[in-house]
Amino acid sequence: MSVLEIKDLHVSIEEKEILKGVNLTMKTGEIHAIMGPNGTGKSTLSAAIMGNPNYTVTKGEILLDGEDVLEMEVDERARAGLFLAVQYPSEIPGITNAEFMRAAMNAKRAEDDKISVMDFLDKLDDKMALLDMPEEMAERYLNEGFSGGEKKRNEILQLLMLEPTFAILDEIDSGLDIDALQVVSKGINEMRGDNFGSLIITHYQRLLNYIVPDVVHIMMDGRVVMTGNADLAKRLEEEGYKGISEELGIDYEENEE
Fold first, then answer.
1. Which CATH number fits domain 3-94+165-248: 2.102.10.10, 3.40.50.300, 3.40.50.1000, 3.10.150.10?
2. Residues paired with 7 in a beta bridge
3. What's the predicted TM-score (pTM) here?
4. What is residue 196's DSSP assignment?
C-alpha cells in the first residue's frame, strides 16, 4: 500500500495565498473526490502536488510513502508514480500520441528494461479499444486539433498506459457530453484496485454517479472544511455550497481559480 499525505499545505501565486492549510491523506485502493466553489484552490492543489513552478509552497509537506515530494523535480514526481490530468491539455505538434506515450513509459523503466515495440502496441490497441478511440488517433500529433472530448479521452489513455500509483484528475469531466463522460469513467474505473489511488477534482455530482468515490472532501477558502463518504456529494447537490458554509459558519465568495 502506498500513501500520499498532504500536511498543512500553504501555497501562493504571485504573493497571493490560495491554499491556507490543506490536510489530506489518500491511500492506494481509494478514490477521493474534491469539490468546492471556484477560486477555493482545487486546481492550485493539483498544481502544487505536481510541482508547477508558478505556484510557491510557503509551508507544509507533501509526502509520498514518507518521501518529500517537494524536494523532487517534476519528472521525478512522475517517475515516483504521480500523474496529473489537467483541465486544458497542451497541443504538441510534431510528436505523435504513440511516440509520446512510449517515451513516457520508458522514462519510468531501467535502461535494460525498455518496453518492446510489440508489447507497447498490443497494450495501446487494448486500451484504445476500451476507450472507443479510433486507431488513427495514435498517429495524430499530441492533442493537436483534438476536440475537448478527444483530449479528455487521451488523458485517460495516458493514465491507462502509464499505470501511475496516484492520479490527480483535474475536472476531467469538464465539457464532456454524456457518452464521453461514460467512456472516461469506464477508463478510470478500469484502474481501480489495490495498487492505484486517485484524487478527482470536480464540480458535478454527475461524474460521481459513474465513479463512486470512497471519500469526498469539500474545499472552501483554501482548506478542506468537510470530509465524508459518497453521500456528502449528494448532499452538496441538494444544499449547494451556501448550505454547507452556513452550517460551518464560513463566509465564502466564489471567484475564478
1. 3.40.50.300
2. 61
3. 0.89
4. B
